[in-house]
């Protein structure tokens, strides 16, 4: 955190302790405002415990508060991603998710997992989507076990160039998640060490969960049913 931000947090916390909560509430930067509130809570706790009044109030050792609703966290961490990786956002920030371009995804993933005040150590799911109009999307649900943060990353790519950098080496569970998404949607994860089908045979034709998927007539001489009726 920059010295300017640390001073802003320290000054606003001192004013808040003196009774002026607007000093914190009027901070425009969401991340700085959250850190200031966390630093204020720490300062009040130290006062109650009888600790030194000279304790650090800058918020430099306080992670962003973890009880913020996920909708706000998507905007907050979206701001931080954009600050750290300029040009990585794909469109405006939203409450529900963070939309990213694919180019810097691997570097962003490493940063989200290892940054001390985030530690998104759990990749809970990757969901493939066919958005129509020749657009596919991969959605990543990330969770921090330490801070209980939860955010969703979404990356959209054209069907004609359905490729996203792999995060298999960042979160090892990503191995099977990416293989399943590849198997069902044909999204290729560049850098994956063993990208192949996981549910269907290697020589199966097409990507079953795409909207334009057409079931092949036969597979090695066996008629492939068009509907489930009679074979469930």
Report on this structure:
By secondary structure, the chain is α/β, with parallel strands linked by helices. The protein has 2 domains: 3-49, no CATH class; 70-219, Beta Polymerase, domain 2. It has helices spanning 3-17, 22-25, 30-49, 70-84, 105-114, 174-185, and strands at 98-100, 122-132, 135-143, 150-158, 163-165, 188-190, 218-219, 222-223. The strands form 3 sheets. The protein has a 4-stranded mixed sheet with strand order 1-4-3-2. A two-stranded parallel sheet has the order 5-6. A two-stranded antiparallel sheet has the order 7-8. α1 crosses α3. The protein is elongated, with a radius of gyration of 23 Å. The model is unreliable at 62-67 (pLDDT under 50).
Average of pLDDT: 87
Radius of gyration (Å): 23 Å
Instruction: Count the beta strands.
Output: 8
Q: How are helices and strands ordered from N to C?
A: HHHHEHEEEEHEEE
**Inertia-based shape:** elongated
Calculate the terminal CA-CA distance, rounded to whole Å: 58 Å
CATH architecture of the largest domain: 2-Layer Sandwich
Range of strand content: 15-25%
Q: Look at the helices and sheets and give the structural class.
A: alpha/beta
Keywords:
alpha/beta, four-stranded mixed sheet, 2 domains, 232 residues, 8 strands, Beta Polymerase, domain 2, two-stranded parallel sheet
Sequence-ordered SSE layout with sheet pairings:
Blueprint: H1 3-17, H2 22-25, H3 30-49, H4 70-84, E1 98-100, H5 105-114, E2 122-132, E3 135-143, E4 150-158, E5 163-165, H6 174-185, E6 188-190, E7 218-219, E8 222-223
Parallel strand pairs: 1-4, 5-6
Antiparallel strand pairs: 2-3, 3-4, 7-8
């Amino acid at each position: 955190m920059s010295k300017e931000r640390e001073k802003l947090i320290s000054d606003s916390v001192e004013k808040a302790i003196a009774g002026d909560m607007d000093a914190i509430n009027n901070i425009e930067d969401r991340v700085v405002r959250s850190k200031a509130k966390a630093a204020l809570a720490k300062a009040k706790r130290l006062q109650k415990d009888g600790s030194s009044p000279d304790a650090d109030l800058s918020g430099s050792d306080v992670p962003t508060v973890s009880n913020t609703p996920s909708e706000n966290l998507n905007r907050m961490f979206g701001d931080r991603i954009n600050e750290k990786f300029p040009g990585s956002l794909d469109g405006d920030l939203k409450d529900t998710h963070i939309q990213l371009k694919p180019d810097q995804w691997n570097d962003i993933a490493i940063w989200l997992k290892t940054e001390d005040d985030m530690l998104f150590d759990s990749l809970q799911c990757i969901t493939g989507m066919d958005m129509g109009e020749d657009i596919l999307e991969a959605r990543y649900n990330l969770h921090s076990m330490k801070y209980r943060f939860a955010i969703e990353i979404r990356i959209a790519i054209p069907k004609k160039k359905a490729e996203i950098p792999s995060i298999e080496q960042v979160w090892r569970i990503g191995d099977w998640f990416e293989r399943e998404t590849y198997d069902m949607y044909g999204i290729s994860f560049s850098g994956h060490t063993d990208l192949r089908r996981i549910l269907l045979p290697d020589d199966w034709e097409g990507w079953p969960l795409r909207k334009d998927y057409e079931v092949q007539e036969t597979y090695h001489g066996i008629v492939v049913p068009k509907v489930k009726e009679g074979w469930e």
